[in-house]
Amino acid sequence: MKTLHLVYLLPVLALLSGCLSLNSDEQKAEAAEKAVLAKHDELMAQMDQLTILRQQLQKTPGPDTVAACRQRRALLAADAAMMDWMHRYRKPADTAAVARRLSYFAGQQHKIDSVAVLFRTSLDSAQLLLKAAAPAPSSTRR
């Protein structure tokens, strides 16, 4: 009798383990999507900083206006890369195979990470240029 119950129980256990691994794959796809969107949100929070630095570079007086123009173009390129990524991003359907979704999100993670590098380098370079162009503090004499 116990053997008979085990025979009925084995397919149920096999089905249950299959569901658990499917659920695990679904969780991986959700986590991959969340990671991509978290990087997007992080970069979006820096968009104002891009604009502010661009405006500051436009107003920066000094002999090195060529460098300021170059930095403004780099900031514009970072902005354009972000806009391009956002316009091209298309979340795969939930009904798509998990492997396909994971592959898509991996590709998108690579792309948004590249945009993040462009953001960071252009922001850092612009800040350095502005700092170098800032007038030195004058000392007061008594």
Q: What's the gist of this structure?
A:
The chain has 142 residues and is mostly helical.
Quote the average pLDDT: 85
Question: What's the SSE pattern?
Answer: HHHH
Query: Given the structure, what is the number of helices?
Result: 4
Total beta-strand segments: 0
Walkthrough of the structure:
- The structure is a single chain.
- The model has no long low-confidence stretch (mean pLDDT 85).
- It is built from four helices and no strands.
- The protein has 142 residues and is an all-alpha fold.
- The chain has one domain (26-133).
List the helices and strands and how they pair.
Blueprint: H1 2-44, H2 47-59, H3 65-88, H4 98-133
Signal peptide: 1-24
Organism: Hymenobacter sediminicola
Protein name: Lipoprotein
List the main descriptive attributes of the protein structure presented here.
single chain; 142 residues
